[in-house]
Amino acid sequence: MQPETVLITAPQEPLMVSDRSLFEISDDEFSHIRKTLLFHRGFKLDAYKDRCVRRRIAIRIRANHCESAQDYCNLLVSDKTEIDRLLKVLTIHVSQFFRNLSTFEKLREKIIPQIFATARQTGKKRLRFWSLGCSSGEEPYSLALILAEHFAKELEEIPVTIDATDVDTSIIQTAEKALYNHDRLIETPINYISRYFIEENHQYRLSPTITKMVSFRIGEMFNSLIYDECDLLLCRNVLIYFAREQQEQVLADIARVVNKDGFLVLGKSETLLGQSRSHFQTICPLERIYSPVKSFQTPTDVQEV
Ligand SMILES: C[S@@+](CC[C@H](N)C(=O)[O-])C[C@H]1O[C@@H](n2cnc3c(N)ncnc32)[C@H](O)[C@@H]1O
After folding, report:
1. Main-chain phi, psi angles of 132, to 5 degrees
2. Which of 8, 112, 233, 242 stands 20 to 30 A from 276 (CA)?
3. Do 110 and 145 form a contact (C-beta atoms < 8 A)?
4. Which helix (H) or strand (E) holds 38?
5. Cα-based torsion angle of the residue sequence 213, 218, 219, 220 in order, rounded to the nearest 10 degrees
6. Tens digit of pLDDT for each residue in 64-120?
7. Cα 253 to middle of ligand 1, angstroms
8. What is the CA radius of gyration of the chain?
9. Does the CB atom of residue 286 touch ligand 1 within 6 A?
10. Quick check: CB of 14 below 6 Å from ligand 1?
11. Which residue range is the domain that position 120 belongs to?
């Protein structure tokens, strides 16, 4: 992306961190940090919940033993690696393979069979699944594991592209390495672990059979979505960190890229907001699965309500 042209200079009149609550970062200092992230990493701080952002900036101020928020602004100017550390703290990366296992079971039992069935009926030659805010890859790889294990025949007939994007460059590199600590696998059914992971120095390496099914790319979701024509879009546990207006914006963009017969999956504590409520209908409220309103023909075996 083309960064906005902004002149970044450290703000004046430092305030000592010890003189005030760590959450009180002056408007100037906050604006400096916001511009720095936007200019160097294309990251839009405004989109995130204010209190959450300030708390996380305060963590980095403390971690660097800065005496003031102004000091921290100076550090961001002199040490670009701190920009990435701040970004890492701001973009929470918690994830797991088969996070909320029941959601993946619903996808395996009802939704993915429905997607293949519709593709067959309509003569579709290829499908796209997309994990938006994929963190270190557990989510898109879980989709790949399900496809490899349960839909091998269908894949021969109708190949599936699994795309995965995240705003954080370093987390995409981690995802591509596909080497995980055990805590990332606690929800993973044992048959997947024994068949598709190899133990390596107390970590677990995912088989290339699976890793080659997923394409990772750096992507900031506020700069319009980079893919379209999605048959299954997972955007889970990302919206929760955004202010309401930005959640609505992302959901409106998502509505444009999910195919008429496709599905959207949100995180367990996320829901449709604003205009998106008229674009999607709920297929499974418990698992937060939705489908575009207009042409969706409710399959009896998918409907839960
Ligand atoms: C908590 S993780 C969720 C990972 C996975 N979807 C899951 O549910 O397990 C949130 C991810 O969203 C990414 N993220 C945050 N803001 C983003 C943005 N504006 N554009 C793209 N990704 C973003 C973060 O970098 C982080 O990896």
Report:
1. -100, 115
2. 112
3. no
4. helix 27-41
5. 140
6. 989 889 999 999 999 999 999 999 889 888 899 999 999 999 999 999 999 999 999
7. 16
8. 21
9. no
10. no
11. 101-292
Q: How far apart are CA 144 and CA 9, in angstroms?
A: 46
Pocket test for ligand 1, best of 91, 96, 241, 242 (most atoms within 8 A of CB): 91
Q: Does 86 share its domain with 128? A: no
Is the CB of residue 207 less than 8 Å from the CB of residue 149?
no
Predicted TM-score (pTM) of the model is 0.84
State if residue 238 touches ligand 1 by the CB under 6 angstroms criterion: yes
Whether 60 and 132 share a structural domain: no
The contacts of residue 132 (CB under 8 Å, 6+ apart) are 165, 219, 221, 225, 233, 234, 235, 238, 254
> Exposed (0-12), middle (13-18) or buried (19+): which is 66, by Cβ within 10 Å?
middle
Q: Do 77 and 134 share a structural domain?
A: no
**How many Cβ atoms are within 10 Å of 236's Cβ, its own excluded?**
23
Provide the number of structural domains found in the chain: 2
User: Per the structure block, which two tokens stand in for 179?
Assistant: 């080497």
pLDDT on residue 17: 41
Query: Looking at the structure, do residues 162 and 288 belong to the same domain, yes or no?
Result: yes
Angstrom distance (rounded) from CA 133 to CA 171: 10
